[in-house]
Design a protein that fits this description.
The chain is mainly alpha-helical. It is built from 7 helices and 2 strands, in the order ααααααββα. 24% of the residues are buried.
Length: 224
């Protein structure tokens, strides 16, 4: 009964968001394994450098430096992949849902616009309490990465670092690599990636519940 109603009236019925989340988690898992492998190689190079002398030591030190630098770029690549999958997933869910409830979604300040529309249509109670800061941080980082690549200009780096302090987003959401004590690259932390995946799941579930209750009224406690 439930799945039949969901198929007919769920605002996102044209898209299989469950399968998308599974695919995203699968790729992120493979990225974690790649990070672990590179970390092991860096550790091995460091151990060789510590126990060798002469030309062998020079070679080990060079290998360690190259691997350490590569880890910064790999972290950036994996961070871009994460934001590049999660941000469009959440944005597309809202864009698919809002037309089905009689309103559209503009493209100005997207996080604020989403929250504004959510409140206007009465969907707020169905969604995560920290939706706005999560979306603001996610979309801002997505925009910087997709327009600036892995390495941003010094001006953009300083602006983003200042923004992290001004917005008071949790300190565990982003990390950075530095060069001469200045920011060099910014990354989504694993904790923030996990948080965004959780928010994405709850957004999809909340939109689904809102759509069903809009058509049928409040669901009974026994419903999933």
């Amino acid at each position: 009964m439930w799945s039949h109603i969901e198929h007919i009236l769920f605002p996102l019925e044209a898209f299989n968001y469950g399968a998308q989340l599974v695919a995203i988690r699968g790729l992120l898992y493979r990225q974690e394994r790649a990070d672990e492998e590179l970390s092991d190689r860096i550790k091995e190079a460091d151990e060789v450098a510590r126990r060798t002398k002469g030309p062998a030591n020079d070679h080990a030190v060079d290998a360690y430096a190259e691997l350490a630098e590569m880890s910064c770029y790999q972290d950036a690549a994996h961070s871009m992949a994460a934001v590049g999958m999660i941000a469009p997933l959440i944005e597309s869910a809202f864009r698919a849902a809002f037309p089905s409830i009689g309103t559209g979604l503009p493209r100005r300040n997207l996080a604020k616009d989403i929250v504004k529309h959510v409140e206007e249509v009465g969907m707020k109670e169905y969604l995560p309490a920290d939706l706005e800061p999560t979306l603001a941080a996610l979309f801002k980082y997505r925009n910087e990465m997709f327009h600036g690549g892995f390495e941003w200009s010094s001006e953009k780096l300083k602006k983003f670092e200042t923004l992290l302090g001004e917005e008071r987003w949790p300190s565990g959401w982003f990390s950075k690599a530095t060069s001469d004590d200045d920011p060099w690259m910014f990354y989504m932390t694993p904790a923030f990636v996990d948080h965004c995946l959780d928010v994405a799941e709850r957004v999809i579930r909340g939109i689904e519940q809102f759509g069903l209750e809009k058509n049928f009224g409040p669901l009974s406690p026994g419903c999933p």
